[in-house]
Design brief:
It is a single chain. The chain is mainly α. The protein has 16 helices and no strands. Helix 6 runs antiparallel to helix 7, helix 8 runs antiparallel to helix 9 and helix 13 packs antiparallel against helix 15. The longest helix is centred in the first third of the chain and has 22 residues.
Length: 326
């Protein structure tokens, strides 16, 4: 019995050593260790997936990998990671080593960029946000510092807002994360990287919403509205006048496009934008003449059921405010 237990411990130790070498990105060493394991313990666990991973990375980056400061190389390594996800079946299986490996992989890429003075660059040559590299590498603060510059420069980058939301989730600030998520899904629901969202409650809500008839075949488009109406997200309160003007311009552009196309495709986004204008009605006058009645009339025309829910919620919030100050 003791001999069997000793063999089991030795088997586990050898396998774990191989896994650790993979995590350390010593791909050649991992291959050698796993081959040794397979010869010694032919009855043991399968190591094919881990060996295939090593072969994949040896083909892409060599027998071992380290931080690399060249932005073009960092872009190439990000593209290799996307290929890795597709090849090995993201979302990852439970209890796999892939999440920990990914953090180490991207941490090295991010550190390499930092050491070469490229850590503050908004985007890599292929368009990948540098903040995303930091995020994938578990460096939430660096991602939070990097992504707003990209957003400030482009304004309507829904994907970047989604990544910023993920960075705040990683940093433990879920409230700010959901402000970012709301902007992301309102600006461009189809652009948000929903497969990698770190807020599990948001992911679950998206999954559940896809099965509901009231989203009329466009769960992503209706998600920001439904998330506000159901209390997952707080309504968007805009404090900056220039940002109010920007939201108004976006709404007006969408309205013009909808009137040209005369179809329902843009209605979910229009409703979400109108919701933001309506929530900030008291300040919209600072942007010029603003017809709240017309905005809400259109909301009612587009979706009378959701408009009714919205107005009920608006009344409930007003009643609670009055009760607090009574």
């Amino acid at each position: 019995m003791n001999e069997q237990l000793s063999l089991f411990v030795e088997e586990n130790t050898l396998f774990n050593n191989g896994v650790q070498q993979l995590l350390d990105m010593d791909f050649k060493g991992c291959m050698d260790t796993l081959e040794h394991y397979r010869r010694l313990y032919p009855w043991g666990r399968s190591v094919e997936r881990e060996r295939d991973m090593c072969l994949f990375w040896i083909e892409r980056v060599g027998e071992t990998t380290a931080g690399h400061g060249d932005p073009a190389e960092a872009e190439r390594r990000y593209r290799a990671w996307l290929e890795f996800e597709e090849r090995f079946g993201y979302p990852w299986p439970d209890h796999g080593i892939e999440p920990a490996f990914g953090v180490r992989y991207f941490s090295l890429v991010a550190k390499g960029l930092d050491s070469a003075g490229h850590g503050r660059t908004a985007r890599l040559p292929g368009g990948t946000p540098t903040g995303l590299i930091c995020l994938r590498g578990g460096r939430a603060e660096k991602a939070i510092a990097s992504l707003p510059a990209l957003i400030a420069g482009e304004g309507e980058d829904a994907r970047a807002y989604g990544y910023l939301g993920d960075a705040f989730v990683m940093a433990g600030d879920r409230r700010t994360a959901r402000i970012c998520y709301l902007k992301a899904f309102t600006l461009g629901p189809g652009e948000v990287d929903v497969e990698h969202l770190l807020d599990t409650e948001v992911r679950d809500c998206l999954r559940d919403l896809a099965q509901e008839e009231k989203v009329q075949g466009d769960p992503l488009g209706w998600f920001p509205t439904m998330a506000v109406l159901e209390g997952l997200f707080d309504p968007a309160m805009v404090r900056d006048v220039e940002e109010l003007r920007t939201w108004r311009r976006r709404y007006e552009r969408l309205l013009e496009a909808e009137e040209r196309e005369r179809g329902p495709a843009l209605v979910p986004r229009l409703f979400a934008h109108a919701l933001i204008l309506s929530e900030n009605a008291s300040a919209m006058g600072l942007t010029g003449d603003f017809d709240l009645v017309e905005v809400r009339r259109r909301m009612k025309e587009w979706r009378p059921d959701l408009f009714s829910l919205y107005m009920e919620g608006l009344g409930e919030r007003a009643s609670r405010r009055e009760a607090r100050f009574a």
